[in-house]
Amino acid sequence: MKLSDMLAGHDHEVLRGDTDVLVTAGTTFDVHRVTSGSLFIAVPGHREGGPESVAAAIARGAVAVLVESGASELPAPVRASGPGVCLVRVPDTRKAAAIASSHYYGEPGRRMDMVAITGTNGKTSVSYMVESVLRIAEGASVGVIGTAGSRIGDELIPMPPSVLTTPESPDLQYLLACMRDREVAGVVLEATSMALLTHRVDRAFIDVGVFTNLTQDHLDDHGTMANYRDAKLRLFQGLCRRAVVNADDPVGATIPAMMPGAVTTYALDAEADYRATDIFMDASGTRFTLRHGGRAYPASIPVPGRYSVANALATVAACHTLGHDLAGLVAALERMPPIPGRFERFETSDKTSVIVDYAHSPDSLRNVLTTIRGFATGRVVTVFGCGGDRDTTKRAEMGEIAGTHSDLCVLTSDNPRTEDPEAILDQITPGLTATGTPFARFADRRLAIAYALASAGPDDIVLVAGKGSEPHQIVGEELIPFSDMATVRELAGA
């Protein structure tokens, strides 16, 4: 495709060359992924590229380069490079990347039903639920993009390793094009606050944006809860056609005024378009009555917890908004398979129950522990930690929450990244100590899980929280293979 066509509708200034140049190898921020025919986008501060990598990108075969307004004078090797390379300056390389990538791949989002989910908790669960109910109710093929990677059904779409829940816009548009070419009926993606702030989901043509909730998290990225809120709300400021929002959440309750006539609400407590009443929970799941449009639908889900009911309401509301039959969607809920790493259960040979869950924020840890307490007959043993290079203000609070709702806690590492794992545990300890609950600490996560299993007996429940289905630990700059559930099974001899 001609570069001029890729940039159509976006302000740009040609610094050198001709925008009729053909881009034949896609777009990328990563200089190491540049090949002959690529468009290299020099995003300031990007770890794998940036303005300082322009010369290297050209040497690797880039036929065009985007740089950002305010960039310093191009270095001598760039000025001396071949005349066939087109250099273009744009006001914002991230905004331009979304437009250029979407055009390059033929605006694939327009060809499928697009659902984007944002919120502190519930994004992955709702994405899996949407996929499951559409597959079960209608046999639909649905693409999923999120924490666990990108896939169609059980087939992962190969991509370079990444810790991003929402891919950068060049990769997102590539994935959408792959899904379009495989003729999927729709795509459901997790839209993180940073993805929304950095324009990763611009030009994805979202049909339904879902807002689950807003609780403390990611203050390391946003600084304040107000900034975090505003980043989430970008989804509802022109990036989606319709919205499905949690009316029980104070931030969610503000969204209808932002999109008059285009918002559907769900709630457990507040008045809403979709409501759940008569909630009954046990260890096997939750039963409730879904109410919509003056009708009542008996419903059940194979996951315990009020928060799981809220996720089910979001799922049904989003799919019904897309035009799918409500009765069929509700009937499909009880047939959903387990969501990997979300209240994922296992029982050892001595009848100890183990639950692996992604809970890694104060609110999500409280939700999963209070749910477990609702049906536990024995002791609750909680293995948890806090991620490194992330919001430090939540660490003592999470210690207090774990101690309040557990009989024994085992502190351990949860993606320490570049921080000292022991220093992270030191910051969790004051909140835990204040509860008086006994605890042990092992920076080695495998040792921590082993200790918890050895400390538990029949009828006890071991919660391994924080990483869910993540297949790795992030230590320093490395992704080290590690699975909580695989470790539990191995240690239990399964």
Overview of the molecule:
It is a single chain. This protein has 494 residues and is of the alpha/beta class. It folds into 3 domains: 3-104, Udp-n-acetylmuramoylalanyl-d-glutamate--2,6- Diaminopimelate Ligase, Chain: A, domain 1 (3-Layer(aba) Sandwich); 108-333, 3-Layer(aba) Sandwich (UDP-N-acetylmuramoyl-L-alanine:D-glutamate ligase), CATH 3.40.1190; 344-491, Protein-Tyrosine Phosphatase, Chain A, CATH 3.90.190.20. It is built from 17 helices and 24 strands. The strands form 4 sheets. It has an 11-stranded mixed sheet, with helices on both faces. Strands 17-18-22-19-20-21 form a 6-stranded mixed sheet, with helices on both faces. The longest helix is centred in the N-terminal third of the chain and has 16 residues, at 123-138. The radius of gyration is 24 Å and the shape is globular. The termini are far apart.
Q: Provide a count of the helices.
A: 17
The average pLDDT value, as a whole number, equals: 94
The count of β-strands is: 24
Query: How large a portion of the residues is in β-strands, by DSSP E?
Result: 15-25%
Cα Rg: 24 Å
What structural class do helix, strand and pairing data support? alpha/beta
The name CATH uses for the topology of the largest domain is UDP-N-acetylmuramoyl-L-alanine:D-glutamate ligase
Assign a percent range to the helix content. Answer: 25-40%
